[in-house]
Amino acid sequence: MQRVWPRASAAAERLWSAANVKDMTDAQRRIEEHACRMNRRGIEAQPPNGPGVPQFEMASVSMRFFHRYNLTFRSLASISTTSSRCTDDISKSRGQKEAPQISDLALLNPEEVEQRKRLQGYITVDATTDISPVTGVPEEHVKERLVRIYEPAKNAMQSGTDNTGHWEMDFETRERWENPLMGWCSSGDPLSNMKIQFESKEDAIKYCEKNGWDWYVQESSFEKPFKPKSYGVNFSWNKRTRVSTK
């Protein structure tokens, strides 16, 4: 039996090669012919394992092997609608279009599709998110701090309006050491010099609530009214806007 199985598998592989097989019917016919030839040769051959082994053992093994392959090819012939053919032309294989991929949603039940859509959605939380327990900031710098949210003005060295229009936040001033004579001050507060910029007032409020800080908004108290003027106003005859030409 050890000599029959490799021979039978090699014969089946040779019969199923691309150079000989044109369709499933041709492959089935060639396998049946080869099985008959193997059967006749096995009956006439000597037993491979000595005189104690029957002479028809090799033929029966080959018949069982090819009968199994025969059933397999019959089932494939009933399923397949096209012939199997291999080619070495790479240009043709590149020009062929790939089969469209089927979405995995088409294979799911409606209940599974609804469950997957629910898992992909977001959960709306009405309460404010508080991350202060996991930030690592000491408790005395969370519950006892007051934050001022304001819109900074231009500094004395600034003539244009660049770097304005945003909102900032800073913390209240705690106890510190000052020396006005030399313009020196020091503080043990780690949050005294921290300033964060925001695009809007609402973003700054959300950031303070998320970190657990008390806050208040300092609105701009001075708004300079805009007065449209023209060059001719300086020479009005009935108003006190005339300037001397001397």
Description:
The chain has 7 helices and 6 strands, in the order H-H-H-H-H-H-E-E-E-E-E-H-E. With 246 residues, the protein is of the alpha+beta class. Among the domains are: 4-81, no CATH class; 137-218, Double Stranded RNA Binding Domain (2-Layer Sandwich). Strand 3 (176-179) and strand 4 form a beta hairpin. Helix 2 runs antiparallel to helix 3 (57-79). Residues 43-59 have low confidence and may be disordered.
Tell me briefly what this model is:
Keywords: Electron transport, Membrane, Mitochondrion, Mitochondrion inner membrane, Respiratory chain, Transit peptide, Transport. With 246 residues, the protein is α+β, with helices and mostly antiparallel strands.
Features:
about 250 residues; alpha+beta; 7 helices
Q: Helices, strands, pairings?
A:
Elements (H helix, E strand, L loop, with lengths): L3 H12 L8 H21 L12 H23 L10 H6 L14 H11 L11 H4 L10 E5 L16 E5 L4 E4 L4 E4 L8 E3 L2 H11 L2 E5 L28
Parallel strand pairs: 1-6
Antiparallel strand pairs: 1-2, 2-5, 3-4
Helix pairs in contact: 1-3, 2-3
Membrane topology: Peripheral membrane protein
Protein name: NADH dehydrogenase [ubiquinone] iron-sulfur protein 4, mitochondrial
Subcellular location: Mitochondrion inner membrane
